[in-house]
């Protein structure tokens, strides 16, 4: 929200109280409290009839500093609040000098004024990150007597801001005004399904505003040299999060708000859905599935969208008996074909559903302010909303999910969760303004808990549309309702990259677009992008998405990229494990890996898939693409061509390729199974070594589908000698020296030539291979 009239003045009728004059600093063992008058105090009488603002500084975890500003502290805070994994015993050191007091947590420190004009600066290992001054924090009363608290943090020259959730605008948020308020707005506007009050700076720090309610960010769009954020009420709390790298910042942020869970290995395969408003029954479903298998199109998950239930009865958790008279038998038959099953749900109960009366009678539905059940006709006729603040309502909802899992359902698409009313009241008395964004956390958490309970750890996953901070713990999330055109394809990627820079590890999108039907060209280009994403789903609105309905070449393209993804699974699953450990996304903006290269800072039409693969989707019907390659000798995965980095590349591609480059010093694990995503990754794996530079190291780890480490291989090059060490591993594997056709000598393995390079077969039980080039 904007409060100023230009740089010098507040809007007419607005009163702004700033922390002008520091009057006292109170130090405890692990915190500081600063008391600042809202005007300059020159004599004792100036302390009368004036406001004081209080700033509390503490640390919830190493490398994180909490800042809490308060005007009037007497109003009891009403929930909900974000779930934080903090440690009250986090060690801090405090250094007190004449003019400043410094608090340090890990490598992060804050230096605050002790006397005279308020100001604070934040440093990480001596490197200045940002700061605020006496015009930054502010308690504001509007002309309508509304109360807000804001902060303004410095935005440096050349500094870029990222994150703030799944935003479909430019990935660099400078110049934008961003409202943290979940909306069902598609992918073509500034509204977002997943609003996260966290941003990441190219200078190497993050800021998390600890408020589930509406937070307004002005990223250089009110004061052009500041990032401003504001919330309604008498206080604002935020965290400055440090780290050696941007990845470390995300790691620290997700230590505080929760790490992503590891989705099951099968979920990384190809998903096919019934689509939304299409007609289907078991025969239709089988025609799709059998058609895929007959065309040698590997398929791993089948999803039933809304109309698996009768119209007007969503959500009643009951199969439409007219269309599916034998659901248990049908699910068994589908699972016999090797498929996992997903069904659509949401948190609304239509009035025609038998569950509506039960929910109303038992108090399980959100109520209006005068104690009636809240209802409207948008989406479903007369629908109510499940009250997840009521433990009995949550258990009631979970019970229906357990029944579906017992039938054979493996996961749920948790749709909606954004259209949450604010003129209501909740069972536990939660503030409805805070619940608007927070509701999705309770909704997705309840569903995820049932899946973990019934199926076990690392077997639970959702396909969720809405989220707030902490929602990354319940993957996977998809990008919402995109259109079947290139603009929307690019919008979707921008949204996914922004979400990844907000602590979410896994993300998907509707291949070829949800709205309308794509021409064959867009379908084929989007297939390549979709199968080189974290998760891959064919889904749409009014038409089926099986490839032969587009053209026969679409069948070939889908087969090619689906099989490619299956062979990449040893690498991709290791990347997924890394995401759960560090809180970094599998699909990531280039700046996350190459922050020191300013050419990467604005890139939002390409991405890194894991640490080692660069992907540049094609967004036009000419097949042309321009993309940037960082320094080093990169290798085109398909052709083997070496691409010199540090500059832009312009290429033209057919439908079977796109820019897919292996980073130099990469040891890339290629699996032996092209038919499925969940297999024994160590058995017959081929490790491809790309452009190992003198003095450099390339390393890879292979896990099983339960995330147990099976094999670690490390290659070190010194001049013409390559030492390869092997730990673990009892199954046969090979190493391919990509682009190398001759070696001088070899110990610990035998070798042959291939079209892509020398192939090494380790001797049985060997722990070291020495190659002289």
β-sheet strand percentage: 25-35%
Most strands sheet? 9 strands, antiparallel
Helix run count: 11
State the shape: globular
State the share of residues found in helices, binned by percent.
Answer: 10-25%
Uncertain stretches: none
Q: Round the mean pLDDT to the nearest integer and report it.
A: 97
What is the rounded Rg?
28 Å
Q: Structural class of the secondary elements?
A: alpha+beta
Q: Please give the alpha-carbon distance between the first and last residues.
A: 63 Å
**DSSP E strands, number:** 52
Main β-sheet, spatial strand arrangement: 11-4-5-6-7-22-19-18-16
Task: Name the descriptors.
773 residues, alpha+beta, 9-stranded antiparallel sheet, 6-stranded antiparallel sheet, 11 helices
Describe the structure.
This protein is of the alpha+beta class and 773 residues long. Helix content is 19%, strand content 31%. The protein is built from eleven helices and 52 strands. The strands form twelve sheets. The chain has a nine-stranded antiparallel β-sheet with strand order 11-4-5-6-7-22-19-18-16. The protein has a six-stranded antiparallel β-sheet with strand order 3-14-15-21-20-17, with no helix packed on it. It is globular. The chain starts with a strand and ends with a strand. One of its GO terms (molecular function) is alpha-D-xyloside xylohydrolase. It comes from Paenibacillus alginolyticus. Residues 56-218 form the Glycoside hydrolase family 31 N-terminal domain. It holds the Pfam family Glyco_hydro_31_3rd. Belongs to the glycosyl hydrolase 31 family.
């Amino acid at each position: 929200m904007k409060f100023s009239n230009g740089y010098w003045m507040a809007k007419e009728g607005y009163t702004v109280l700033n922390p002008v004059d520091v009057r006292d600093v109170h130090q405890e063992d692990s915190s500081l409290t600063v008391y600042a008058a809202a005007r300059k105090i020159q004599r004792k009488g100036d302390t009368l009839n004036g406001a004081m603002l209080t700033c509390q500084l503490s640390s919830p975890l190493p490398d994180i500093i909490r800042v809490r500003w308060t005007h009037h502290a007497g109003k009891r805070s009403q929930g909900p609040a974000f779930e934080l994994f903090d440690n009250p015993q986090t060690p801090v050191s405090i250094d007190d000098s004449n003019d400043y007091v410094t608090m340090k947590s890990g490598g992060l420190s804050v230096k605050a004024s002790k006397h005279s004009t308020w100001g604070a600066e934040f440093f990480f290992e001596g490197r200045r990150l940002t700061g605020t001054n006496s015009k930054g924090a502010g308690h504001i009363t509007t002309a309508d007597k509304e109360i807000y608290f804001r902060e303004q943090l410095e935005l440096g020259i050349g500094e870029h801001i990222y994150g703030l959730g799944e935003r479909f605008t430019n990935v660099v948020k400078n110049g934008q005004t961003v409202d943290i308020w979940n909306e069902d707005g598609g992918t073509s506007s500034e509204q977002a399904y997943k609003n996260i009050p966290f941003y990441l700076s190219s200078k190497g720090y993050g800021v998390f505003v600890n408020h589930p309610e509406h937070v307004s960010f002005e990223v250089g769009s009110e004061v052009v040299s500041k990032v401003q954020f504001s919330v309604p009420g008498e206080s604002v709390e935020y965290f400055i999060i440090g780290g050696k790298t941007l990845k470390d910042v995300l790691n620290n942020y997700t230590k505080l708000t929760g790490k992503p869970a590891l989705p099951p290995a099968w979920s990384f395969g190809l998903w096919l859905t019934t689509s939304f408003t299409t007609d289907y029954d078991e025969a239709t479903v089988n025609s799709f599935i059998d058609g895929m298998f007959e065309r040698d199109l590997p398929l791993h998950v089948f999803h039933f969208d809304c109309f698996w239930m009768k119209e007007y009865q969503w959500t009643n958790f009951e199969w439409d008996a007219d269309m599916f008279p034998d659901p248990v038998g049908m699910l068994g038959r589908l699972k016999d074909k090797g498929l996992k099953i997903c069904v659509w749900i949401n948190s609304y109960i239509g009035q025609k559903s038998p569950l509506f009366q039960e929910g109303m009678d038992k108090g399980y539905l959100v109520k209006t302010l005068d104690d009636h059940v809240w209802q409207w006709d948008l989406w479903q006729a007369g629908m109510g909303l499940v009250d997840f603040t009521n433990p009995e309502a949550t258990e009631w909802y979970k019970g229906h999910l357990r029944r579906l899992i017992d039938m054979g359902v493996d996961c749920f698409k948790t749709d909606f969760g954004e259209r949450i009313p604010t003129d209501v009241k909740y069972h536990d008395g939660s503030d409805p303004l805070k619940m608007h964004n927070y509701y999705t956390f309770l909704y997705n958490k309840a569903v995820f808990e049932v899946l973990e309970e019934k199926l076990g750890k690392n077997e639970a996953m959702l396909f969720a549309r809405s989220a707030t901070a902490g929602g990354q713990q319940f993957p996977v999330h998809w990008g919402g309702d995109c259109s079947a055109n290139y603009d929307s394809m690019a919008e979707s990627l921008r949204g996914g990259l922004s979400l990844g820079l907000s602590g979410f590890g896994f993300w998907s999108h509707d291949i070829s677009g949800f709205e309308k039907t794509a021409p064959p060209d867009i379908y084929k280009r989007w297939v390549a992008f979709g199968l080189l994403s974290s998760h891959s789903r064919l889904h749409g609105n009014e038409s089926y998405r099986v490839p032969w309905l587009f053209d026969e070449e679409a069948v070939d393209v889908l087969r090619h990229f689906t099989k490619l993804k299956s062979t990449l699974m040893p690498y991709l699953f290791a990347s997924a494990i890394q995401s759960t450990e560090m809180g970094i996304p599998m699909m990531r903006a280039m700046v996350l890996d190459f922050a020191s290269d300013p050419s990467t800072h604005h890139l939002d039409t390409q991405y890194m898939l894991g640490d080692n693969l660069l992907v540049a989707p094609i967004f036009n019907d000419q097949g042309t693409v321009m993309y940037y390659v960082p320094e080093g000798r990169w290798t085109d995965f398909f052709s083997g061509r070496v691409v010199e980095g540090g500059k832009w590349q312009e290429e033209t591609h057919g439908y079977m390729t796109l820019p897919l480059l292996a980073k130099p010093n990469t040891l890339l694990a290629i699996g032996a199974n092209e038919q499925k995503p969940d297999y024994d990754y160590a058995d017959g794996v081929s490790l491809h070594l790309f452009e190992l530079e003198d003095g450099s190291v390339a390393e890879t780890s292979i896990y099983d589908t339960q995330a147990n480490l099976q094999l670690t291989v490390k290659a070190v090059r010194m001049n013409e000698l390559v030492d390869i060490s092997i730990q673990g591993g009892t199954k046969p594997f090979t190493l391919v020296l990509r682009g190398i056709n001759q070696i001088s000598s070899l110990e610990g393995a035998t070798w042959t030539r291939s079209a892509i390079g020398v192939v090494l077969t380790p001797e049985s039980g060997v722990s070291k291979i020495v190659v002289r080039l």
